[in-house]
Amino acid sequence: MSNNSEARGRFWSVLRKPSRYSLGALLAIGFTLGIIFWGGFNTAMEATNTLDFCISCHEMHDTVYQEYKQTIHYSNRTGVRATCPDCHVPKDWMHKIARKIQASQEVYGKIMGTIDTPEKFEAKRLTLAEHEWKRMKASDSRECRNCHSFDGMNADSQKQRARKQHELAQRDKSTCIDCHKGIAHHKPKGMKEEDDE
């Protein structure tokens, strides 16, 4: 018994008056645990940033994924494919975290059953699309601009109507989503006229 109480006494004594060795050990352990936590957090973050994760629920797989597979963003002459996170998740860390927090509402909708069938998803499609359009408008279509920019466009190879629309968009400081709703997914039924461009 006395050995145990002596050991406890020494332990508390070290905690009350830490030596530079114990302080160094504590810092090293904290640093190591921080790296492990950060690595695990980023690994989990990137695991939720894949096409496979996005279409793992049947609502996404059976609806918007099937629509997306019919677009130029899925299959094109160059073989460049934009996947869900390319369009819906910002690349920079702060905006990515904010988007992931926002996306937790969508997961909540899945868990609570508000969009857990294709029929329920279709009933909420307009609301979901309006939220996404608003987010994209607020960010000046940041995710679109990761691949597309006015500076990178070759206006001479565009059809006359597209060239004119892009010139007007630049002049009016419009953003991609102002004109390109329904580019990768079907437009929702019941859209307002000003949204249906």
Task: Please describe what this structure looks like.
This protein folds into two domains: 1-47; 58-197, no CATH class. The termini are far apart. With 197 residues, it is mostly helical. The longest helix is centred in the first third of the chain and has 28 residues, at 20-47. The chain has helices at 2-16, 20-47, 51-54, 58-62, 64-68, 84-88, 93-112, 118-138, 142-145, 160-172, 176-179. The chain is built from eleven helices and no strands.
Using brief descriptors, characterize the structure shown.
197 residues; mainly alpha; 11 helices; 0% strand
Helix percentage range: 55-70%
How many domains? The number is 2
Please indicate the percent range of residues in DSSP E strands (runs of 2 or more).
Answer: under 5%
Order of helices and strands: HHHHHHHHHHH
CA gyration radius, whole angstroms:
26 Å
Secondary structure: number of strands: 0
Q: What is the count of DSSP helices, taking H or I runs of 4+ residues? A: 11
Average pLDDT, rounded to a whole number, is 87
Low-confidence stretches: none
Report, as a whole number of angstroms, the end-to-end distance: 82 Å
**Can you summarize the main beta sheet?**
none
Alpha-beta classification: mainly alpha
Shape, per Cα inertia axes: elongated
